[in-house]
Structure formats: structure tokens, C-alpha cells
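Submission sheet (multi-component)
Chains listed below:
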Amino acid sequence: MKKILIVGGGGYVGTELTQKLLKNNYVTVYDLFYFNWLIKNKNKVKNSERLFLIKKDILEVNKKDFKDIEIVCDLAGIANDPSSDLNKKYSTKINYEARYKFAKIAKESGVKRYIFNSTCSIYGFNKKKVFEKSKINPLSCYAKAVQKAERKIYLLKSKEFKVNILRNATLYGFSNSMRFDLVINLFTYLLLKNKNIFIDGDGKQSRPFLSVQDISRMYLHIIQTQPKSFIVNALSFSTNIYDLTNKIIKIIKKPKTLVKFNLEKKDHRNYNVGSKNFKKYFKNFKFTDLGKDIKKMIKNIKKLNLRPNIKTIRVKFYKKKLSRLKY
Ligand SMILES: NC(=O)c1ccc[n+]([C@@H]2O[C@H](COP(=O)([O-])OP(=O)(O)OC[C@H]3O[C@@H](n4cnc5c(N)ncnc54)[C@H](O)[C@@H]3O)[C@@H](O)[C@H]2O)c1
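Outcome: structure written.
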């Protein structure tokens, strides 16, 4: 059993990852718990006797936080473009400076492996298909900050301190700390409620996708196989937004849905992503099925009465939160 610290582990990805890793490990979640499902449900989580929660800002990290910790999974931050744009100075401080400092102190404290959740949006607008060694082109404040953090954290790698960078595609699927500001999740919700779909731009923008269950399983795979340091694009499929919409309509069986285009709101992010490294480090990895994940999400939306609100739309939450911060 390993001792793992998940920073940002109370969020959309972290809540699922924490539950997966608890099966065979001790897990400490270090988070401000802006989204508090784990705090509220700590005792209901399986193997909760191995779960420890630290409510703390990443800006306040110190060596004591890493006592006996072997592996850090880094998911912390202000996790999308519109939320980061609300206060660029503060979000750069968190998404770049604080995340880098966190990794540096982890290394100095004897942590052996650092798994960093990066983003495919660092490729920005790119006409050609991009791979791990392609030129990056981060467009937003969010993508620029994460890319800087990724670059400097990767430079920390050594024989004793392995660094694994997972450049995440846009994620989708049910999490106990749900997000409806992710395109597949939002469109699923809207279709379920018999609403029309509005696509920003002409829908031809290409985007990679990955299930939140798959990213959690990728962490598990790294922890089990102990690979050397690497950078990997983490995606299961790429598609343009129009085709994606039709796929979801087909899965949910809502053929009469009206799909409209908001041509004034152009979406400049367009990246068709592949991976040259994935198979090398994730042998025999099987991705989950989009249809299966969407059906599971629908079941939980109904059962838990989930909906887009301040807890599930990050920009709504940060609008309120950041208005109180002086930066
Ligand atoms: N969800 C996606 O589609 C996606 C895609 C690509 C990359 N990522 C990256 O994956 C990571 C996790 O994404 P997510 O969807 O789970 O986001 P999330 O917003 O659900 O989770 C982020 C977590 O960070 C915590 N946090 C924020 N500021 C903090 C601070 N100052 N100190 C301590 N904790 C703080 C929040 O409380 C939250 O639990 C992020 O770094 C994000 O950039 C996510």
C-alpha cells in the first residue's frame, strides 16, 4: 500500500480518483474543498479509514504536508478558461506559481513521483494534428499558466523524482463532485431536459475527449506500473463539436432536438490531438464507452437531482469567490 497525496482531490476528477485509489492505498486529500462532497461523505466512502483530509490552500504548503508521502497527484487549480479570466493575476498565481512551488517542495521533501494533470488546451489553435512533441500554442490565461507549470515541473524530474505529465482532453462523465461546464455533460443534461442545443461558432472546431473514469484509471495504471518520467496526451477520441452533438443525440435517442449555431460567439480553440507515447506507457489500456458513460451520468442526474448551478458551473462559483479576494 502506497501513501498518496492528492492535491485538488476534492474536485470533479479528484473525488473519483480518491475513491479509486483508496482500494489499495492510503490517500490524503489536500484541498480547500470549494466543492465539498468528500467532506460531507467522508464516512460513507469505502475504505474511509485510509482517507485523510487536509483543508488548506496550496499557497500555504510546507514540507510537513509531505511527511511519509511517496506519490503526489496534482489536480489543484482554477480549472477552466472563463473562471481563470475572472482574475488573471490570481489564477496565474494558483495555476502556475503555486502548483510549481507545490511540486518543488514535494521533491525537496522526498516524494518519489509527481503526477501532474495538465491540459490539451495548451495546443490552442492548430491546423495540423498535434502530438506530444508538436508546437504548443496556449491561447488563454488558463492554458498559458498550466503550460508554464507543466514545463517547470517537468524540469524537476530526476532518477529519484519521477514526473508524469498527463495532458488531459476535455473530460466528461459522472463524478460525485459534478461539473456541467464540460461540453458532453452539459449537452447530456440539456437533452435530458428536452432543451435545444446551442453550439458556439460553426461546430467544426475539433476537440479531444476522455472519460473522468479513464483519467482516474490512468493514474492507477501509473501507480501500479511505476514508469519513468513522461509526457502523454490523455484522450480516448477526437471529434468536432457538431459530430459530437449528433453522437449524444443518438445515444440519448432525442432525434427531434434542434441544434443551433451561435456564429457570433466564435470558439477559437481547435485542436486535433493524437498521442505517440500513450501505447508505450499504457499497454492494454481499454477506454470506457461513451454511450455507457452517458447512460450512467443520466441515471445519476435523475437520482441525485443534479443541475447546472453555482456548485457545478465553475465560473459561477469563482465569480462569487473571487469577488471577495483582493488581488
Ligand atoms: N475537467 C476537465 O475537463 C479538465 C481538462 C483538462 C485538464 N484539467 C485539469 O485537471 C485538474 C482537475 O480538474 P477538475 O475538473 O477536477 O477541476 P475542479 O475545479 O473540479 O477541481 C479543482 C480543485 O482544486 C481546488 N482548489 C482550487 N484552488 C485551490 C487552492 N488555492 N488551494 C487548494 N485547493 C484549491 C478546488 O477546491 C477543487 O477541488 C485541473 O488542474 C484542471 O486544470 C481538467
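Remark: Residues 6 and 321 are 23 Å apart (CA to CA).
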